[in-house]
Amino acid sequence: MTDTVNAATDTIHDADHDATAPPAGLELVITRVLDAPRALVYRAFTDPDHIARWIGPKGFTATRTEGSVTPGGAWRSCVRSDSGDTEYWSSGVYREVVELERLVYTFAWEEPVGTPGRETLITVTLADQDGKTMMTFRQSPFESVEDRDGHVEGWSQAFDDLAAHLAA
Amino acid sequence: MSVDQLSSTLAALADPTRRAMLVRLIRGDATVTELAEPFAMTMPAISKHLKVLERAGLVARSRTAQWRPCRLEAAPLGEVAAWLEAYRPFWEESFDRLEDHLQEIQKENKDD
Question: Which domain holds residue B75?
Answer without folding.
Answer: 5-111
